[in-house]
Amino acid sequence: xxxKEPKKEQKRHQQKHSGPKAERKKIRKxxxxxxxxDERKRNPKxxxxxxxxxMAKTFHxxxxxxxxxxxxxxxxxxxxxxxxxxxxxxxxxxxxxxxxIRCLIKNFTRQKLGDICGPVTIxxxxxxxxxxxxxxxxxxxxxxxxxxxxxxxxxxxxxxxFEMETFEFLNICQVHGFPxxxxxxxxxxxxxxxxxxxxxxxxxxxxFWTEVYQGAKLFYLSGMxxxxxxxxxxxxxxxxxxxxxxxxxxxQQSHPYVVADxxxxxxxxxxxRVDPKxxxxxxxxxxxxxxxxxxxxxxxxxxxxDFAVADISFMPDxxxxxxxxxxxxxxxxxxxxYAPMAGVGGVVYDKDAxxxxxxxxxxxxxxxxxxxxxxxxxxxxxxxxxLDAKMAAGKVSLFTGAAALTPGEADVxxxxxxxxxxxxxxxxxKAVFTEEEDDDDDDSEGSRALRWKEGLQQxxxxxxxxxxxxxxxxxxxxxxTGNVSVSVRILYFFAVNFxxxxxxxxxVDCSRFDPDAARNWDLEEMLDSIRDCFVTGKWEDDxxxxxxxxxxxxxxxxxxxxxxxxxxKGKAGxxxxxxxxxxxxxxxxxxxxxxxxxxxxxxxxxxxKRRLKECFDTExxxxxxxxxxxxxxxxxxQAELNRAEFEEVDDETxxxxxxxRPGMYVRLEIPSLPCEFVTKxxxxxxxxxxxxxxxxxxxxxLQKHRWHNRILKTRDPLILSLGWRRFQTIPLYxxxxxxxxxxxxxxxxxxxxxxxxxxxxxPQGTGFLAVQSVAGTKTxxxxxxxxxxxxxxxxxxxxKKLKLIGYPYKIYKNTSFIKGMxxxxxxxxxxxxxxxxxxxxxxxxxxxxxxxxxGAYRATFEDRLLMSDIVFLRSWYxxxxxxLYNPVTSLLMPAGQKDNxxxxxxxxxxxxDLGVRNKPNTDSLYKPxxxxxxxxxxxxxxxxxxxxxxxxSKPKQDQPKGKxxxxxxxxxxxxxxxxxxxxxxxxxxxxxxxxxxxxxxTVQHAKHKDFLRQRSKAEEDKLKRQKEAxxxxxxxxxxxxxxxxxxxxxxxxxxx
Length: 1056
Fold this sequence. Notes:
The protein contains 25 helices and 39 strands. The chain has a 7-stranded mixed beta sheet with strand order 6-5-4-1-3-2-14, with helices on both faces. A 7-stranded antiparallel beta sheet has the order 12-11-24-9-10-23-13. Strand 4 (151-157), helix 6 (164-176) and strand 5 (180-186) form a beta-alpha-beta unit.
């Protein structure tokens, strides 16, 4: 700018090129020493620890962050082809679960799916498959799917925020093993204000983190376009699902289970026709998950019951992973979709039937154009009559223009067909012979041959050729049609030389027989042609048995007979001795070459050892290696050993040793299933087959604890989810006292308590949850309690408190006779020495039983009792656990009512349904209190005691005073009429004065209040003026100081 001087250039720093500092820099540069190391050596104090406390805190924090990332390493038992990952989509009704599943399926497979019925399996990547299952609002479905889920997509309606189903499912997951959970916010397009949308997102995200874990992933689906979510958002969600890692859950890793995606009824139709309610034999299909499954075991189907498996077999994988792993993306043929319950899956072959999936439904097939590929199948589906019925209704005309004949009119019978004879009333079979004259035959016998015997060899040859042409050519299938060089080498115990032979793949197949090349084996030449193929024939010189034996002796030489100890020398050994003498001269020449070769080999071995030692040092001399790293490495080695054990064995043999491994597509045949399972089957409800351990099929006592703050009553039926099972039982709640006694609780308290039930044996440490009812949806939280199995022992005795009451009927100082507490002398004898007490707190002890009355006894107390005292004895009575195990059979309910299963009702529900009111305790009713007036006797003090009392305390001073005598009473003043007028006037004047003074005081108070208000206002104005003046003064002082500083920098003289 024009008014300012150009900025002066600052003087640059000139580095020293001579002197001690420059010399040190040159030396350091030549030696290659880093600048930091030199500074640490030159000035160690600058890099020393400044604060030991701060250093300790920093170190501890770093170690805490490192330790938080650690988890207990587990052996990776995942097979090479793992089963599909179970993705459960959970949420309240009408939040968009089915829509998102359809969008994800379209994103992965480029296919559209209508109704989401049952599990839907897709191939999502080169090494991963996904199984989508939609979870309905039924609590039974929530409990079952939480046990098998690997990933949970939890839907949250942002316009309505969290609903109770979300927290219920989270609580179920906390008990049965917490899978990976991802939140999905929907209905975000209902927000018109961006600020409200951001606040809602933030609030829901932090609440979701509180329930799951800090940093849990929450996806936002902003809106819908043409009934589907936006493509980019669905694609991002699919990417997260495809790359997510999963930690194995303890229950799933220790129990094999199958999520059935197909069900077939194998029951004999005749049995179903005779008895429609007979037990059914059903085959269930699905991927095996968890651990290895043995055949002929016990399984539990949640919602049905426990069953024995008749047979297990593995089937071809209907949704296989792609073979090539090096490509970046899947092609269209590898994007498979398998959902049999939804009608998707192509052609499926199994031992029960063949299932063909047709594109589109069968409803509007008449209007649609019939495809050539499906024309035959659709025509078979549209057939309503059988083939014999069509033949019976058909007509045939024998000659052109003749009338058509029905089967009844035409008497056409094959030879030998039975004929009904009306006279004899039986079927008669007629023997028919077909003869034909042979005019060209000049034989003297003149016999007539049967017609069917002519050309038998030609007919058989033609039939054999047709059969061979229909069979596939194995050589072409295996090796193709080009020239293939096949190298065969078989490993025997002895070394045998083989020569590689080349075959033409399109040559004559040796497995086929050519009928044209027929040979007459009666001829001697034909027999001589194959005579040398047998052991007795003449072989070639190099294949003769004697020649081969000589070669073996030359190859193996000497050997020792281990039984006799004799040493046999072969011809090769003798020839070797002769050859050694002749080759002494040649060995001297070759020794020099061998020495050079040995030196080279030795150097190579040393170099190899040195490289191995360096690898070893770099791997094991790491100072940061910890016990956790060693443990992880040990687990990794164990996992590799497990995989390599049966890697080379085929599946049929491998299954016999280790059972069916996870990842196989298996078929389980289960007999004796209730007929309702088939007749009332609904594919929207999942079918899970959980294998039971050796002892998990038994029923016994369990102990549980850790109840939530729900008030539950002892002996009220409760529905438990324990292991694979859901069942109803009657628990007894109890708490352990300090003395080890398990005391019965009538109601659960707001703290941890125990519960003992009669139910199936489940391993200790297994989580469980309890609900009071699974029927319908309630407004309140449905999870009544959660806990864990503690013990499987029946020896725990639960006791309840019992008070026995008695009354004294004779009292002798501290000894009393008590009756009414016991009924017999034997009962008293059992309680001799027991502690008793009265309501007033006097303690005593039972001494001895009395003969009369029955049940009376003698007791001693600390003090003398009264006849009105009540004596009670505190005792403990053992309580037996009710043996009720009622499995929840929700899958046997009719369609639409599977979420309305109800078992045993509580006492409160029974009284409410039957209209029974509790009879109140008469002692607990409120009654009018009638106080009895007590008359106490006068205090009597003996004369001797009165003499010792002080004067003021003597009884004579306490005598009441009498009335004042009339002569001492003040006389009443009676005013005159004039005095009364004067007194009335004075009262009126006093009243007026008081009124005026009160009014003046009120006015004065109001004036003073106004004055105080004005004064406070003036004070505020004064303070405001002073503040403004101070700010103005400080501003001027600051400007003056800045001006003086600028002047001093420029070197100008400063003004005062």
